[in-house]
Amino acid sequence: MVHYVDSFPGREMTIDGINYRYFGGTSYLGIQTDAAFQEILIGNIRKYGTNYGASRKSNIRFSVFEIAEAYLANMVGSESCVTLSSGYLAGQLACSYFGKSQGKLFYAPNTHSALYQINIKPYTTFAALDIALRTHVASSKKNTPVLFLDAIDFSGNNYPHFEGLKSLPLDKVILVVDDSHGFGVVGAQGGGVYRMLSQLQPKELIVCASLSKSLGVQAGAVFGTTERIKEIMATSFFGGASPAAPAYMSTLLEAESIYGEKRKLLQQNLELFLKEVKDVAPFSFMDKHPAFSFSDEKTTSYLKENNVLVTSYSYPNETAAVMSRIVLSAAHTKEDITYLTRILNSY
């Protein structure tokens, strides 16, 4: 059932006069409603304005973009980084760039729509993908395969162990990974999966991510080598798009300590949930990630009957299967977590 709200859906919301605890969405750090974070952002809006609609290639340029991109690259562990106005646009930029190059595109199971521009079906298994990649590599020495993948696809098949990838000929593959649900939460200091995937030694690694989920700013980023990022920034796709608001870029830099505090709170909530809930078997989840997927729609109904709302809808379109997910946030209190686990334990 669709619910319309008129304020940000934080840890609580009121619908039709009924108060609910909310365990859904993608605000993993709960940063969007944090008062200190908002004050930083408001101050930067006063300095930089609400938005900036000119190209990054304009003759008038904000220095904060390059400063923020260097900061993000260091956070992730890549040589370089470029930011855009959304995570979806970051994925589309990578897809467009490689789709127009000499590479042949391959898609791993459950790859997000942000990485598609043409009608290519993902492989249903990594075994089938492995055969296709090896066949292509053996038959074409010049046409480098480009593999698109979601780091966190909520099936548990990728992050944190990436077992499917380990069977592939990665030394001959350009790997393009969407880390929107991991960046800011998993990895050292929230740096996501870039360092983990680098250890698998692909021919080249590109990571795209949304900054709006965990970090609470409307922006996206692409991470990779200095040479590759320069080539991406030289495209008309990048030059023709407006950038993220410079106020958001400055806020990223100033809110580092807040992000660190929120990550600690999130992990404490996650540990409390796993300690208190009696049975995790019905859920699909990943180490140190706060999302718990499930398929039993009766669970969603039971939770709502007990004043708990979770993410539950057909995704990515109305013909797809219902996606149901309990999402913990740094904004949740201990009381919220214990209330949730008590309801789940009584189901």
Q: How many strands, which pairing sense, and closed or not: the largest β-sheet?
A: 6 strands, mixed
For the termini, the CA-CA separation is 21 Å
Report helical residue fraction.
25-40%
* Secondary structure tally, helices: 12
The coarse overall form would be: globular
- Class based on secondary structure composition and strand pairing: alpha/beta
Radius of gyration: 21 Å
Low-pLDDT stretches are none
Spatial strand sequence of the major β-sheet: 3-8-7-6-5-4
Mean pLDDT: 93
Strand percentage lies at 15-25%
Element order: H for helix, E for strand: EEHHEHEHEHEHEEHHHHEHEEH
Q: Care to count the β-strands?
A: 11
In short:
The chain is α/β, with parallel strands linked by helices.
How does this model look, in words?
The chain is 36% helix and 17% strand. The mean pLDDT is 93. Helix 10 packs parallel to helix 12 (334-345). 42% of the residues are buried. It has helices spanning 35-48, 64-76, 87-99, 126-139, 163-166, 194-198, 226-233, 236-239, 246-254, 256-276, 297-305, 334-345, and strands at 12-15, 18-23, 80-84, 104-107, 145-150, 174-178, 204-210, 220-224, 291-294, 308-314, 322-327. With 347 residues, it is an alpha/beta fold. The protein has a 6-stranded mixed β-sheet, sandwiched between helices. Strands 1-2-10-11-9 form a 5-stranded mixed β-sheet, covered by helices on one side. The longest helix is centred in the last third of the chain and has 21 residues, at 256-276.
